[in-house]
Write a structure and sequence with these properties.
4 strands, Chitinase A, domain 3, 3 helices, 93 residues, globular, alpha+beta, four-stranded antiparallel beta sheet
Length: 93
């Protein structure tokens, strides 16, 4: 079964999410941005969600994590929790 590791940043607005994505694109460290801005408890680990398989996260996460490029920051991704930036850190098929 496929497995992936990822980290994310959760914020309330698409505008904030887009702004943070620009900061990261301009050289800010993803983990530090997560610690300073993410409302998810994972922020204390730099947004690290650990390892998981398909169906263990919300469908919007699965779509990105199991289909998009590893090592890039994706988003904003809207879920029932808010707006996320997602970085797939590894994936196995």
């Amino acid at each position: 079964m496929a497995q992936a590791t990822a980290r994310h940043i959760l914020v309330d607005t698409e505008e904030k999410c887009t702004s943070l994505k620009e900061e990261i694109a301009n050289g800010a460290d993803f983990g530090e941005v997560a610690k300073a801005n993410s409302s998810c408890p994972s922020s204390q680990q730099g947004g690290d969600l650990g390892s998981f398989g398909p169906g263990m996260m919300v469908p919007e996460f699965d779509q990105v994590v199991f289909n998009e490029t590893v090592g890039e920051v994706h988003g904003p991704v809207k879920t029932q929790f808010g707006y996320h930036l997602l970085e797939v850190t590894s994936r196995t098929d």
